[in-house]
């Protein structure tokens, strides 16, 4: 069972360690020094940014991170996705990582995604759907989305988080139960 809590500043060393792991570093283009982690995660931890950084806990132990936000709060990102598919008002997005390499390939990522989506429907009643772009080469990520109930709705070019990646992305969507497209 996955539970959640907001990321706090005392979690920054753990996030830095996770961001240094090869399986995370490949897809998350983040600095890992204490200063860089504080710069990137501090505003959300202090409530100064509209996105949410959520620490995923499995049996009370941290296993991963989910960043969740309303697309409306990030107009440039919204416009980039809207070039590929219609984006409904209130749509949200997530990004995620499993921090401990020993937990990868065991369904933890899929469980995290399912749990955060269930929580999203409860905590964001105006959200009709969640849209998630994934670099096409990141098979493990988009397979976790598919196993969590997302469906691929578009293929297109987006600016990659990591400059070593191709622009080819898959866009995945899950709808609030009872909403549909």
TrEMBL record:
Coiled coil segments of this chain:
none
Q: Which GO terms describe its molecular function?
A: N-acyltransferase activity
**Keyword Acyltransferase recorded:** no
Q: Sorted alphabetically, which SUPFAM superfamilies does this protein's record hold?
A: Acyl-CoA N-acyltransferases (Nat) (SSF55729)
Query: Which Gene3D superfamilies is this protein grouped with?
Result: 3.40.630.30
Keyword Chaperone attached: no
- One of the GO biological process terms: response to antibiotic
* Highest rank taxon of the organism: Bacteria
**Swiss-Prot/TrEMBL keywords:** Antibiotic resistance
InterPro entries referenced in this protein's UniProt entry, alphabetically? Acyl_CoA_acyltransferase (IPR016181), GNAT_dom (IPR000182)
Q: Indicate the segments forming the N-acetyltransferase domain, all copies.
A: 2-177
**PANTHER family in alphabetical order:** LYSINE N-ACYLTRANSFERASE C17G9.06C-RELATED
Q: What is this protein called?
A: Acetyltransferase
The species is Streptomyces argyrophylli
